[in-house]
Design brief:
Elements: H1 21-63, E1 73-74, E2 79-80, H2 83-112, H3 118-130, H4 136-161, H5 177-201, H6 205-213, H7 218-229, H8 231-247, H9 250-255, H10 273-280, H11 286-322
Antiparallel strand pairs: 1-2
Helix pairs in contact: 1-11, 2-5, 2-8, 3-5, 4-5, 5-8, 6-7, 8-11, 10-11
């Protein structure tokens, strides 16, 4: 019979050794710091709510929920309402998410699924990421001097040809919803594209090879295997892009027209909560501070609600994918 060798005790460099006192203390300190950082974020968010809500409280008591359901904003008569701003914020962000989000996902597929060689894909990826570095005011100036003159003939033709369609019921004479939506789509594109690329790259190569091994074409594999597998990351990119669109200020303040109205027309001027705050605060009188803070609370609540709902949906879809 062969002799059984005696077990060799682990050396000092073995991974099976117990942690030293220094490693144990380092791990405990790291856990404490991460817990403290997370707690600090919660405290900071609560402080922001408390500070802004405290200044908005008098306006909340005075105007109540009617502040959210009326359109008039007239400091001379102390009539304030932000329904037009809420509509403009959600409408412009939703339109931008449709166009910018769809384009961002398409760009991510184009750059990660072998349509380009590695060097050319790197160049295109760099160009897309550089869009995020362009200041918002530059986008606004580009929209005023380049985009609006370029789309005005098309807007006039659509209005003259299809005036009975609500989306074209107004003629584009200057700043409006459509140029603001286009610029906002370009601004959220880098966020959606970058996170979607990470989601596609995280898919194991074996999954793609299995799809091709079953006889699928490239587009079938992308549509039926790759996109569903990366759906959690794609949805996260859309949620972050939507949150980015909700809070955009300068470009929309320059391009959307700042008009107190609720309209479906893509060519009519509108307004948003962020542009209201940016354009009104510098010259606001004492009677406007409270309503403006009330509007800031509304914007903060909308943004947080969108992110919380998006996170819940993303967690649910992730569990469904795993099961």
């Amino acid at each position: 019979m062969a002799k059984t060798s005696k077990p060799v005790p682990p050396s000092n460099g073995s991974v099976s050794r117990p942690p030293t006192a220094f490693e144990y203390g380092y791990d405990k300190s790291f856990r404490f710091l991460t817990f403290f950082a997370g707690l600090l974020i919660v405290v900071l968010l609560a402080y922001i709510f408390w500070k802004i809500g405290g200044q908005a409280a008098p306006a909340m008591r005075q105007y109540g929920l009617s502040f959210l359901t009326t359109v008039e904003w007239n400091p001379n008569t102390n009539e304030f309402g932000i329904l037009a701003e809420i509509w403009g914020t959600l409408y412009s962000s939703f339109l931008a998410l449709i166009f910018g989000g769809g384009l961002g996902i398409a760009v991510a597929i184009f750059l990660t699924q072998g349509f380009l060689n590695a060097r050319l894909a790197w160049v295109f990826r760099l160009i897309v990421e550089m869009l995020a570095a362009i200041p918002s005011v530059v986008f606004g100036l580009w929209g005023i001097y380049v985009l609006i003159p370029a789309i005005r003939p098309m807007a006039s033709w659509l209005h003259d040809t299809l005036p009975f369609i609500p989306f074209f019921s107004t003629n584009l004479a200057g700043p409006g919803m459509f140029p603001a939506m286009i610029v906002l789509s370009i601004m959220i594109l880098p966020t959606v594209a970058a996170i979607s690329q990470d989601a596609f790259k995280a898919i194991p190569m074996k999954i793609q090879e299995a799809a091709y091994g079953m006889g699928t074409t490239k587009w079938e594999a992308i549509r039926k295997v790759i996109i569903p597998t990366a759906s959690g990351g794609i949805f996260a990119s859309l949620v972050l892009g939507f949150g980015r669109a909700l809070g955009e200020t300068m470009a929309l303040a320059m391009l959307i027209g700042n008009s107190q109205q609720v309209s479906l027309s893509l060519f009519s001027p509108a307004t948003t909560l962020a542009s209201l705050l940016a354009s009104t605060f510098p010259e606001a009188g004492a009677n406007q501070i409270g309503p403006l803070m009330y509007a800031a609370v509304a914007l903060l609540v909308i943004t947080m609600a969108v992110n919380i709902i998006g996170t819940i949906i993303m967690s649910y879809t992730s569990r469904q994918t795993v099961t």
